[in-house]
Each structure stands twice: as C-alpha cells, then as structure tokens.
Amino acid sequence: MNIIDKLYERIDKLGFVCVGLDTSLDYIPDEIKEGKSTSDALFAYNKKIIDATKDVCAIYKLQIAYYESYGLEGMLAYKNTLDYLRDNDLLSIGDVKRSDIAASATMYAKAHFEGDFEVDFITLNPYMGMDSIEPYEKYLASGKKGVFVLLRTSNPGANDFEVLDVNGEELFYTIGDRLKEINDKYIGENGYGPVGLVVGATHSQEVEKIRERYKNMFFLIPGFGAQAADSMNVYKLLNDLNAGVVNSSRAILKNWMNYDDGKTNVGKYAREKTIETYKEISKNANI
After folding, report:
1. Which tens digit of pLDDT belongs to each residue from 99-136?
2. How many Cα atoms within 13 Å fall on the side-chain side of residue 141?
3. Alpha-carbon gap, residue 279 to 209, rounded angstroms
4. Threshold 0.85, pTM exceeds
5. Where are the active-site residues found (predicted)?
6. Residues 6 or more apart from 160 whose CB is under 8 A from it?
7. Which of 20, 37, 104, 287 is the most exposed place for a label (fewest CB within 10 A)?
C-alpha cells in the first residue's frame, strides 16, 4: 500500500487530527524533566503524548525548529521520536519547509526520506520554482513518501505574496496547478496522490474553491488550534471528513496546564483535546 492510501485509511479509522509535536521544554512539567538530559526530557514528553493519542489521531507532525533550537540534544530527541513512531507503525510529517534546487534539494530529500531523520512526509516551500520540487519526485514515484507544499498559509503575512495577481488569479492557484500536474501522475487506490498542499483554514472566502480545484490532493490544514480558525472552514477543506489532516500543536501539548492535576496527567489531557478537536470539526457534517 502506498503512503497516501495508508494515510487515507488511517484517517478513515482514527479521524483526521494531526498531533503537532512542537515540543518545548517550557511545556514539560518539572516532574518529567527532573534528572533527565534535554534530549531525554523532550523524548519522554513526546512519548507520553504519543502513547495517549495514537488511537485517536491519524499522524504526527514534528516542527523541526523546536528541536534544532536545542542543538544536538534536540536533534537526538527528534530522531528518537521518529524512531518511536516508526516502531509503532505510526505516520509522521517532518515540518521542515525546505526550499532549494538541484544537488542541495537532492541532499535535503535524502536527509529527510532516508537515514536518521526519515519521515513519511515532509513540508516544502515552492517559491524558488518547480526545480525545487522535482528532486523529491523519485521518492513520490516509489509510493513510499509524500510531501505537503505550502499553498495558502494561515499566517497574516500570507497576503504579502500568495495573493499577487497572475493572469487574473492569485499566485497560489498557479502554484497549486503546477503541483497538481505532478500529483496526478501518482494517484492511489483511494483517488489521491502524494503531493499534498498546506492550506490554512483562516481564509473563509477561499476554502470551497480550493477544495474543488484540487480534488485529488491531500491537505495539511493548520490554523484551527491556537490560531482559532472556524471549524466550518476546516470542514470544507476536508472531503467527507477525509482527504486532509488538521494539525493542532500547542492546544494539545499544553492542555494539561488547564487542570489542577495536569502535571501528572499530561497524556490524559492531550488525548481529551485531540478527541475534542475531532468532535468540534466533524459536527459540521450534521449541519
């Protein structure tokens, strides 16, 4: 089974939530950090989150900046977390947002699709052009790996460039159309290909058009948690509650902080927030 079909079936079984492991020492109770190195503390916290949520989410996303900020110790925690996910047959996204060309892009692909930092999907930035995407295609063609490419992001600065006029349409549609050409070469059994798009749920006027235009593409959907996007926007980016994963990071990771007994129940409250996220979005199916 190729990777995009595996993700599709995981969502069908466990729901569309993507747990973001954007882990900072600031989020970790002293009881977990005590006596541990930085790498061990980060991994111990991630393990608690994973163990508590692995049957109620589809995939995990690791924002690499959080781990890079702790140097070698952080990157060891990154590796150990990825190993743990793989050992448990769980899916992973390396949120690395790479953008380079030729030999450099080839090395980035090797770094994140093979070896110590191997993941199932990575995020890419397309603004250097299609030759920044092409070096990843051999991995896409194998059926074993996928990418999520920035399209319509949820940050306020997205409007600086993404909506610039190109032949009467916003620039991001030109990017999406070019990426669709690659995706359509590798459509899997469930009707989707391995080139996904990062589409924020904060742009309510665009979500239906984007979903309709890119029917055969998976979406990585940020913006629902800390950025408080409307749940209906998120629902409209999905397709029958599939064809996309909805990322929530801090809202899940820090949920324990809202409870008096949170320090000793990190996993419990992460699980509750993950389930709550699914219910809040999926209720729109009945409206």
Report:
1. 999 899 999 999 999 999 999 999 999 999 999 999 99
2. 7
3. 24
4. yes
5. 97
6. none
7. 287
